[in-house]
UniProtKB/TrEMBL annotation:
A Pfam family assignment: LacI
Organism name: Nesterenkonia rhizosphaerae
Alphabetic keyword roster: DNA-binding, Transcription, Transcription regulation
Name of the protein in its database record: Substrate-binding domain-containing protein
Location of the HTH lacI-type domain: 21-75
UniProt keyword Transferase present: no
PROSITE patterns in alphabetical order: HTH_LACI_1, HTH_LACI_2
Amino acid sequence: MTGLRSAPEKVPARRRSGRAPTIHDVALAAGVSKSAVSLAIRNQRGVSEATREHILSVAQELGYRSNVWARSLVQGRTGLVGVLLQDLGNSYHRDLTFGVEDTAVENDLRLVIAHGRRDPHRMQAELDSLLALGVEGVVIVSSWVPPQSLERIGRRVPLVVVGRLPERVSGIDTVANHDELGAKLAVEHLVSLGHTRIAHLTGSSRPAAMHRRQAFSEIVRNLLPGIEPQIEGPEHLDAAIKYLIFQLQEETSAPTAVFTQNDRIAADLVGACLDAGLRIPEQLSVVGYDNSSVCRMLRPQLTSVDQPRTEMGRMALEMLLERIGGRIEDRHITIAPSLEVRASTAAPRN
């Protein structure tokens, strides 16, 4: 156990030389050894609680900050984990990052967040930049990074992808949503309300969107025999929304419900309906996907398939830590979604 030596009567607010205080300065001012300061700052055993509190108080008064880079040279670790986001403006990505962050803090790690801005080339460049910073691993919240790049970078540092890849990549772990089940929950809900004319509105050909679209078609055919599924998109999404509005205004056989690929598209559809004087859900029921913060901002509030985003982020970092710790075998986790029913869905009116 390390004890206290006699300390100076007054701890200086900053070093007279103007340079940043060092661990030696903290030890001198606190009247303890440098090893005691190191143990206290890293919250490790070897000093009493009273000594730890005294050292931390002195360090705060001096304005001391632990040098992560110097410590990494000694330990061979940086304590940094990268998070590569496809779209920082997407609440799904933000919520998922909160789960990564919470788990990182619990494990005394710090995040370095990179933003791909929905640009595949920029995402590749940002991923390379994270590696240059010395991160110990990366959580990639996107399926946009090509498999060959994942394989190449995965040989250098552990990677975990949150999202549905076009194909599995050796050495890369994944956490994904069960897209087919999500589509099933949405369609079953609408059918249970009495809807028989249901459309699907999509704006992407990426794997997750594709599997939702395929599952929608299969479920509609199974639950509503003889009715051909109506799919609008993924090309020319704005035109697809306008066509749905036209159907609602002019055609007696127009859909009475729409299941959208995500909440953002659902919000665009709801806005277009309101602009056209159409009432939600009286004239059209709408189900989104993601259960993002957008759902509670819309009026009426949006029924949506809920991906447990925070939990997915937590699982992703836990898997990354297993990889950093030496796990070799690949892991692929699929998370079951649920349905959050709100006021945007109701029984169709005759």
